[in-house]
Amino acid sequence: MTAVSRSEIQTSLRMPKALYEHLSAAAETNGHGVGEEMRRRLLVSFAGEPPAVADPNTCELLSAVARMAAVLAQWFGPWNENAFASRVFRHAVGKLLVLRGAREDEPVPAPQPRSGSVAAALFKGKPTVGGVTAALVALALADYPAERGGR
Q: Which pTM value belongs to this model?
C-alpha cells in the first residue's frame, strides 16, 4: 500500500452494494483497485467542468482535448500508458492548436508580460518561449502526485 502524500486525504464512503460491485468490476477491468477507480471517476466528473477563470476558447479547447484523450484511450489505451498513443496525442493536440488559431509559422512578437504580473518579475523582462513553457509545466506538475512526475 502506498503512503498518502501531504496533498491527499484518505476518506471512507458509504454506498449501495450494487454500486460497489459495479466499481469493483470496472476496477478489475482497468487493472487497479476500487479506491483508484473511484478517485479516477471523481476526477473525470470534475474534468468536464470548465475552469473557474477561463475564456470560452480555452474551455472549448480543453473539452476537445478531453474528447480526443477519451477516444484515443478506447482505440489504443490511455495516452499516458502507451507510447504510441502518447505520440499520437501530442501530435493531435498540436494539430488542434494550429486549427484553432495558434500558428507555428507566424513570427512571434517580442513578449510583453502584463505590468505587475508574476511573469514580469519572474522573467525580468526577458521571457523566452522555453522559459515560460518550463514555468507553466512546473506549475501544472505541482498538482500531480510525486509518482506521476509532480512534487
A: 0.52
* CA–CA distance, 37 with 46 (Å, rounded to integer): 15
Q: Is 26 helix (H, G, I), strand (E, B) or coil?
A: helix
Query: pLDDT of 94-125, one tens digit each?
Result: 888 888 775 667 777 778 888 888 888 888 77
Q: Which residue has the cell 523582462?
A: 125
Could you tell me if residue 136 is left (phi over 0), alpha (psi between -120 and 50 degrees) or otherwise beta? Answer: alpha
Last residue of a domain, one of 5, 24, 47: 47
Query: How many angstroms separate the CA atoms of 147 and 29, rounded?
Result: 22
Print the domain residue range for 32: 15-47
- Within-domain flag for 36: yes
86 shares a domain with 64: yes
CA atoms within 13 A on the CB side of 141: 12
